[in-house]
Every structure is written in C-alpha cells, then in structure tokens.
Amino acid sequence: MSQTELARQVGIDRTTLNKIERESRSDVSISQLFRFAEALHTSPIYLLTPRLDDARVQITEYGRVLAAAEFRQWLRGEPPAEGTPETRLAWFLALPRDEQVGLLRRQQTAGMDPLVVAVMAEEIDARSAAAEEALDQLIKQKQEAGAAPRKLRSRKERTDA
User: Fold this and answer.
1) Chain centroid, CA 43 distance in Å
2) What is the pTM of this model?
C-alpha cells in the first residue's frame, strides 16, 4: 500500500504520515491508532511495540523500561509472568469484577471438552458461585485490612448500591 493510500484510509495528510514514520511526530491519537491498525490489517498492540521480544520499550518519558514482550503483556492486562503470589493477587484484585469472575470460570473449565462443559454446566456454575463467594470473602478481608479501592467491592455491595 502506498503512503498516499494509507494516509487517505487513516484520514491524515501524506506529509503527516511521513512525519509519523520518521518519528518526528509521535502524538498519534487513539482513534488514528485504530484506523492505522484497520488499514494495515494488524492489531494496535503491534503498532505500539517493537516486533523483537527483547527490544526495550520505555512506557512514558520518565517511566519504567520493559522488554517488548513484557510491554505487550502489560498492554493486554495479562498477569505478571514473574512475581510473588501477592503481586499476582494484587493484579487479580485490580481487574474489573466481571473479568475476575470470567477468569475464575475459565480456570475451572481449562482443557475441558466443550461437550463436557455443556453436560457439567450446573456443577461448573455451582463451582463458579463458590469461587465468587470465596472472592467476596477475600475482598472483605482486604477491605478490613484497609485496602478498599473502588474495584474491591463484593458482588453484594455492588447490587446493594
């Protein structure tokens, strides 16, 4: 695809595209990033990170530096690859509640045949409910210990609000 055609698809001037390519302009808007990704038939994450996993990426001008693979993991919201159980728990508790519940459910059905999941739906739902109750108890303990960020609200607290 030519530079002119890409610029047209993204909705910018060809000279602006040239500046972005030469890195003399780096302030691409989110909507432009998505238009670039659509036009180039790729995920925005690959426009934000180097292709080589060990290439270094500085998150912000004065922020931490990560390997490209770690940066992609961070952008996707994946759990830290390394770390203590406490850091992984902190990551989990920072997720929105629906993602916490979805992750617990996926963990329970990981590797199961879809037919088995369908047949065992009631049991899986019961296990998921038990896991949610355990999560609510953990959140309550964290709140009592003084950690009460907005996302650490139990299911009951959200439905009562």
Assistant:
1) 13
2) 0.56
**Spatial CA neighbour of 49 closest among 35, 68, 33, 63:** 68
Query: Per-residue pLDDT tens for 112-161?
Result: 888 887 888 888 788 878 888 888 887 787 777 775 544 555 455 555 55
Enter the tokens of residue 87.
């850091």
Question: How, if at all, do strands 65-67 and 56-58 pair?
Answer: antiparallel
Q: Show Cβ contacts of residue 153 under 8 Å, excluding neighbours closer than 6 positions.
A: 97, 139, 161
Return the SS3 of 57. strand
DSSP 119-147: HTHHHHHHHHHHHHHHHHHHHHHHHHTT-
Question: Which positions ≥6 away from 8 have C-beta within 8 Å?
Answer: none
What is residue 98's three-state secondary structure? helix
